[in-house]
Amino acid sequence: RQRLERPQQPRGLRDAGLPQRKEGQRGLLQARVRLKGGAHPGEGRVEVLKASTWGTVCDRKWDLHAASVVCRELGFGSAQAALSGARMGQGMGAIHLSEVRCSGQELSLWKCPHKNITAEDCSHSQDAGVRCNLPYTGAETRIRLSGGRSQHEGRVEVQIGGPGPLRWGLICGDDWGTL
Question: Where is this region: Disordered (predicted)?
Answer without folding.
Answer: 1-25
